[in-house]
Design a protein that fits this description.
266 residues; alpha/beta; Rossmann fold; eight-stranded mixed β-sheet; 35% helix; globular; binds S-adenosylmethionine; methyltransferase activity; SAM-dependent_MTases_sf
């Protein structure tokens, strides 16, 4: 599939159904290779929706917090948002609630089966789906009033942060806002231990009923390492972002990062 393919409803039929078998764990040295990440998510796509209820609703709540961190454009201007590593446009409902019917969203993901999960939203022309690398999107410069990314950072290698930050700066209009959220475990303590046990146990238990769900166990290693937040802040600063802020989201195991691209000098 072309990296710039614009996907619409009929696309779903042409996407092969992900294999129903446990995820092949990536080789240690290759955990963060794009091909490895893509094939992991190709495999997870069939059962990704169960992540929402395994989180007890927290994923949805964190997505709503991310949407709330984006300012509404002034006057009656529409919000135009690039959602990087969008999965099945999982942020779309929260963004729609925040910005209403004028909203336009371009959802970018390099896993066709993950994007295909968005087919039920894709009859809405305000949402376009692009099968592309988040580090080199097919969208024009200054296309967006805001840029989002939910839960995509943990599988992105730290070395790619400067490219991500530069692509975000390219896509945003001056004065545009970026908001990213990710699961970030506390460095130690009972809450970290409990969550790691939960993340390890649930795919095994669920896998007894639904073998494809065991693939979620592969996410544990990325959750354990988490994103490198100081490196991300440095990369955003180097790409020219200002007002870089970080906040822990309740109950403490997710982080919301926001930043602003400076306005053009008057
Ligand atoms: C954990 S899922 C998050 C999906 C969605 N944003 C959500 O809120 O649930 C991470 C997604 O990022 C995608 N992804 C990871 N690295 C990517 C990259 N370099 N370019 C495009 N998509 C990427 C994966 O295919 C996967 O769909």
């Amino acid at each position: 599939m072309s990296s710039t393919a614009l996907l619409a409803l009929p696309f779903q039929a042409s996407v092969p159904t992900p294999a129903v078998r446990p995820a092949a764990l990536p080789a240690r040295a290759g955990h963060y290779q794009p091909a490895c990440i893509r094939s992991l998510f190709d495999e997870l796509a069939a059962t990704y929706d169960c992540a929402a209820w395994l989180s007890g609703g927290l994923l949805g709540w964190w997505r709503a917090r991310l949407a709330a961190a984006l300012p509404r454009p002034p006057g009656s201007l529409p919000a135009v948002i690039v959602d990087l590593m969008a999965g099945g446009a999982d942020l779309w409902p929260a963004l729609r609630r925040r910005f209403g019917p004028g909203l336009r969203v371009a959802a970018i993901d390099f896993s066709a089966p993950m994007l295909a999960r968005a087919a039920h939203h894709a009859s809405n022309p305000a949402l376009t789906l692009h099968c592309a690398d988040a580090l080199a999107t097919p969208l024009p410069d200054a296309w967006a009033t805001a840029l989002t990314c939910a839960f995509g950072l943990k599988t992105l290698p730290t070395a790619a942060y400067p490219t991500l930050a530069a692509e975000a700066a390219r896509l945003l209009q001056p004065g545009g806002t970026l908001a990213l959220t990710e699961l970030v475990l506390l460095p130690s303590g009972w809450q970290r231990g409990l969550l790691l046990h939960y993340l390890a146990a649930m795919p095994r238990l669920l896998g007894r009923l639904w073998p494809a769900a065991t693939a979620h166990a592969a996410l544990l290693r990325y959750a354990r390492s988490g994103p490198d937040l100081p490196a991300l802040t440095m990369a955003l600063r180097a790409a020219g972002f200002e007002q870089i802020q970080q906040q822990r989201l309740w109950p403490g195991c997710a982080v919301l990062i926001s930043a602003r691209k400076p306005s053009e000098p008057l």
